[in-house]
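Batch manifest, entry 17 of 40.
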Amino acid sequence: MVILLVKSRKLEILIEKSDKPIAFVLGKYITTGLGVCRCLGNLGIPVLWLDSSYKQIGFSSKYCVGKKCPNPRDNEKEYVNFLLDIGEKLNQKAILFPIGDIEVLTMLKNKKALENFYRFPMADLDITNKFLNKQLFYNILKEMDIEYPRTSFPKNLPDLKSISKKLTYPCFIKPSYSASFVVDFKTKMFLVNNSKQLINFYNKAKSKNQEIMIQEIIPGDATCMYSFNGYYDKDFILNGSFTSRRIRQWPKMAGCACFMETLIVPEIADIISPIIKKIGYFGVIDSDFKKDPRDGRFKLLDVNPRFWMQISLPARCGINLPYITYMKTLGRKVDKTSISKENVKWLFMIDDIRSAKMGISKGEISFLKWLSSLRGKKEYGVFKWNDPLPLFSLFKNVISKNNRL
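Output type: structure tokens
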């Protein structure tokens, strides 16, 4: 077995000086990684962030040491060897904090090799995969009689053509495994307007060996989208929970929240908890719902067994889920927490400007209304007064990309 040598003075110092288990942040997502680093680092927990790009702007945060690593999707063996090489140098077992589905799958698939050096903050692959694989997930929802968007899983092209006759357009083509689809096509899904597009996009997805599903589009804008986040322990008890609602998203049709607000919605927790027990999962979760304006009912879209873009918002409001995960993974008790701050908004300004610009051009929102919406207490996706360098790095990246256009 070829072991990649990991040489870094900063990494060596981190390992030498750490009297607590190091948190390994695994993945590329900027606001997710920054949120986890800050939630942990602010409490004195040492953090190492691994990403396959040396340009990761989060590496400039004062709350972590950043290190370039192999790409887990393209070079899984090298990625695992990289983790093993670092693991051999550790004074005590570290805790893995994956922030992307590819990282979740890779670390759980290789748990037997990695568990000599690392602790895992979630259930094993056979359980966690029931969230990651959307066909398995929706089959469970159907069995439990939990509402979700109308969804079909075509077996082949003739089956797709038969399904197409019953569809209402527009609709979505979505992947069974979203992370790999995003890498292949730079989008989370395909928007389909007619049967011809349906076949073309289906063939495009199959050319990359993607398993797909056809899903209805529930009407309503971003404000119909709700999230429920929390950590469930091995007894399936909820340790800290948080709910929020989107204000805007990017891309506008089916993107991620770029502007959202805290909102207490207890009934969606009541939907999630039975699923957790049914599957047998423990760990952190991020679930998305859409409130259907046709009947006023919440339809469950997905449950992600990992951290997410807006992870710093619950912490700002008194629910530090990365810290809860860290402590529970070590088998330590965590004091019960509750929301100490309400009416706080989370903002990723670059994408919110894009979303607002499109909304203004379509007459959906005025410039003044957009400015007015930004009032109030805010948690920023990148900016932090006591950790300003990631914002400067982001501006540098944006400017350099524009200069190349």
